[in-house]
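Fill in residues.
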């Protein structure tokens, strides 16, 4: 006859294989069945084999003896640990008191959001005597209709009553020039960019295990430094030009970029042009208050014989400038990082007319060049 130690080893091996597939109540019933089958001393043997208390095995035996039908659940209704708000009725008011002062948005909105993290809220609640974790705080906030959100750019400044008329005028000027076959360009200066082997978002097809190696930090290169990209977008040709300046963003540099575009691309595309229409932002090197911009444009007009007209977008509306919506800055960063190896960059989008609200351009051929034009004030 096998000794009790051998029986316990057999039971331990059996329970080890079965228990991971059973819930809490099923484990008690299986242990109770084994204990009843062993007879006298069975409860103690099963308890030692499983490492549970003898009272747990005895409870399972009582459940078997009662002959209760399957519950369909692990615990009886109302069993288990109570919810934090039931144990601590003051927890919910204390949490809302912390959140309400920093709540933002319409109080009648079905969604509310907070700027404090759940970890900081949990720490403050614990300091006040409400022991709670960050996960519980998150559950309570969601139950109260809160959600974690970022900022939403929806607030506009004061609107000019002539704003619509201003855009309609610019649109009519552009439409007339395009119908006449004259060039129309949209210009814009972007912020300074680093030049060198820096990381860019996105991926490209390369041999497996051979990614492009870039610098681990985006510190400026002492030799290459930073550059100023000046973008020119030809609406009729759906082509972009980027002049990368190695000096400062000045009116002289802006007009020099236009001159390079005209000599390198515009003159060939519009051999019979007599007028040139430029749409630009209201500020910066090509701003309407910059006298140097007007002086340099006048000199450029005398050189080329073109009648140059500039339409400035109203302040605060530069995002509607065609060069902004048509030329992707990410491609320009990659182009500048590889100067002078790469001078041509293309991407394809859906064509879009000048008026905002339609589809985007279909194919923007982007050409770039490095410029060391001096920063003439």
């Amino acid at each position: 006859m096998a000794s009790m130690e051998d029986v316990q080893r057999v039971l331990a091996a059996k329970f080890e294989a079965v228990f991971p597939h059973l819930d809490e109540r099923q484990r008690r019933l299986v242990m109770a069945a084994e204990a009843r089958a062993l007879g006298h001393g069975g409860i103690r043997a099963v308890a030692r084999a499983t490492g549970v208390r003898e009272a747990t095995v005895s409870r399972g035996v009582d459940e078997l003896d009662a002959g209760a039908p399957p519950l369909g659940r692990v615990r009886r209704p109302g069993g288990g640990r109570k919810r934090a708000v039931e144990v601590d009725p003051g927890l919910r008011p204390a949490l809302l008191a912390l959140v309400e002062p920093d709540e933002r948005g319409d109080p009648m909105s079905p969604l509310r959001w907070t700027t404090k993290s759940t970890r900081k809220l949990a720490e403050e609640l614990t300091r006040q005597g409400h022991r709670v974790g960050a996960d519980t705080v998150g559950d309570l906030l969601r139950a109260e209709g809160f959600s974690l959100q970022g900022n939403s750019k929806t607030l506009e400044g004061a609107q000019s009553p002539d704003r619509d008329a201003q855009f309609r005028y610019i649109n009519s000027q552009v439409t007339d020039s395009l119908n006449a076959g004259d060039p129309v360009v949209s210009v814009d200066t972007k912020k300074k960019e680093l030049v060198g082997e820096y990381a860019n978002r996105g991926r490209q097809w390369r041999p497996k295990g051979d990614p492009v190696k870039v610098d681990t930090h985006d510190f400026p290169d002492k030799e290459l430094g930073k550059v100023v990209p000046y973008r020119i977008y030809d609406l009729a040709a759906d082509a972009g030009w980027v002049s990368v300046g190695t000096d400062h963003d000045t009116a002289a540099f802006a007009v020099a970029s236009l001159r390079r575009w005209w000599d390198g691309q515009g003159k060939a595309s519009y051999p019979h042009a007599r007028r040139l229409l430029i749409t630009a932002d209201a500020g910066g090197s090509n701003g309407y208050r910059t006298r140097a911009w007007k002086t340099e444009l006048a000199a450029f007009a005398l050189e080329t014989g073109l009648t140059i007209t500039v339409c400035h977008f109203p302040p605060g509306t530069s995002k509607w400038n065609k060069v902004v919506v048509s030329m992707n800055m990410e491609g320009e960063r990659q182009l500048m990082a590889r100067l002078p190896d790469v001078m041509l960059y293309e991407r394809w989008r859906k064509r879009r007319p000048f008026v905002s609200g339609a589809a985007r351009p279909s194919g923007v051929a982007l050409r770039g060049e490095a410029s060391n034009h001096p920063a003439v004030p």
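The chain is about 40% helix and 15% strand.
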